[in-house]
Every structure is written in C-alpha cells, then in structure tokens.
C-alpha cells in the first residue's frame, strides 16, 4: 500500500520536470502542457471522496487493487500518447485511478491496526509522503538525464510499472477485505462535489488565467448546494455525522493550514533556487532532499499527538532561519546555510504529519473510513492548491516582474523570498495554534 502511495504522489510532481521535454516532443502549446500537469491533480482531487466511498460500499481491498490496475494501464497510455490532447485525456484518467486507489490506504490502516500498531503504520505513511514529496524532481531529472532506451519524457510514466506490479502482487496476497454498511452510491452528491472542486481548484492549477476568475465563486455556491443536498440524503456521499465531530473539523482546519504552508514553501524555494540562484531542476531537487529525509525520519519517530505542537515550533524556527539566511547571506553562499535549515523544517513537518492524520481519523466509525479518508485527502489537495495560489501570487507581486524576466536582479528574488517566507511562517504559527486544540484527550 505504501508503494502505491509513493507512486501516486510521485506522479503529481514528476511530470513538472518533464514539461519542457513533453512540449518539445509533442509540439504542444503552453496551455496544453499546463493541462498535462493540472489534469492529473484536478481529477485526483475531484474523485477522492467518491473513491473513498467506493471502498466503503464495495470493498476496500477490491477498490485498492482495481485502482492500482487502472493506474498502471493509464500510466502506459500516458507513455504511449502520440499527441498532447491524448496525453491530457490519459492524465485525467490516471488522476481518477489514483482517486480510487489512494483513499483505500488510510481506510485499510484504520480497519487493520489499533493502538501503537496504527501509530507505527501512520508513521510509515508519513515517511512515504516525505520521500515522495522530494522524489519527483530528483527521479524526473535523473530519468531525463539518463534517457533509458531513448524514451525521453515517456520514462517518467513507465517508471510506475515496476512499482505498481510489486504493489499489486503483494497487496493481493496480504490485504484483507473490508467494507462499511452496504448502500447505493450517492451519484447526485458526487456530481455536485466534483463540480464544486473543479470551480475551486482549476484556476490555481492553471495559474489563474483571466477567464477562470468566475470559477471560485461558482465553486463555493456549488459547495453550499452540496451540503444542503447531502442533508436530505438517506445514504449521503459524505455522512454529515463526520462533520459534526469537533475533532474532525478542527483537524481539517489544521490540515488546511499545514499543507498550504508546505505547498507554499516548496513553490517559493523552487522559484528562488531555480530562477534566482540559477540551479537546474535536478540540483534544486537535491537541495530539497534534506527536507524530505528529515520529514521521513521524523514521521517514523513522532507518532504521538504530543509531537504536534513541538513539530510546528520547529517548522517556525526553521522558517525564521530561512528568512534570515536569504535576507543576509549573498548569492550562492545561501545554499550551504539553507541545507541544515531545510532539514530542521522537514523534521518539524514529519513530527506533525503522521499524528495529524491519526487525530483527524480518530473516532471515525469504521463504516465511514473510506469517506473520512477521502475528505482528509481532499482537504490536503485544496490546501495545496490554496498554498500555491497564495504564495505564487504574493511572490509575483513582491518580485515586481515575471520570474525569469531578463534584467531582474537577484536581490529582487531575495526580497520576494523573504516576503513569502514570512507568509509561510505565519501559516506554521497558525498550524501550531490549531494543533494545540488536537492534543487533548
């Protein structure tokens, strides 16, 4: 299950490294390659709650294995795509496959483990998130540099095949079946929620084109309509009893602050390292590596809810260090100072990630495990999109010019990085304050 988790999260980022190669190889427009990247994440986010509910209704093991098979098939379709429109279509299908596959992981963990064993499983899950978060740029850059069998960008999709086959074989032999109460899938609720999430997430996924500005208000209106519709359903897509739990609501608010800050940090550092300091995507990914390693190691060690507030404090301390380094250290000399600061940031994030998942899902009825996992992962995706939109817009405004424009001084990037790091620091402080409400018994 962790291999499948790694594979699904890797595919959300590995393609961004291959975008220039895809554009050249397929003769695609800039708008088309934007949809290659956005199609996956958008379809994934839109389908998560429905995918989780499918596991509750029809079997989590069956849904997980079906999702893995579909993910492998669509990965091969992506690699074989002869044109940009077909690649976009295959990426959307791949995102929907991930939405069937990944919510089952947390719901199976909830159903299969209790007590310390569950904390250990969630720690391993958090470590997998940490490794996947920094592997996209490293693996993608390495594959493009190595160019196995002359496959070019297509190898970024085919790398899923051996990983997925191992996950499929081992999970098929070891994962027990489980499901919630039998009922019919709420198709009306799924349609309303999907449309609402498209409205909320599409503008950020495409960099806020002017034509997309009406989408977020429409998304909020559809989200309100979804809530009203669900209250009238006998078998709703999202049982309202989940959102009646104070721990669940407080946990989801913490998830929004935590993952919005993480997404913002990755974006601002990518801008600063690549456009400001002139690092290649591969070198930039290697500079991120201490953060991912720290995240993975701390996820294994920090399994208790008592680690939530100290973890957020470490995040705040490391971000303060990043802000001071960029503000005071000149040019490329910053990199040597940033490495330990990013490692500390990763440790703080790892101490928060696994216990946060456990606290959000604690007390959820096993019958609602898939729906709760889908809601949690959807909140994560909304947070990621919000963080990218907020920090990206703030960075562009502070820079005063488009990133990469000739003549833009390095000091301008330093200034923009300092301003946006301060915003991410505020989100880390908010994460700590919200996390305090989750540490009670």
UniProtKB/TrEMBL annotation:
Keywords on record:
Membrane, Transmembrane, Transmembrane helix
Location in the cell: Cell membrane
Q: Does the keyword Nucleus apply?
A: no
Is Transcription regulation among the key words of this record? no
In this chain the Major facilitator superfamily (MFS) profile domain maps to 1-440
Q: What is this protein called?
A: MFS transporter
Per UniProt, what is the membrane topology? Multi-pass membrane protein
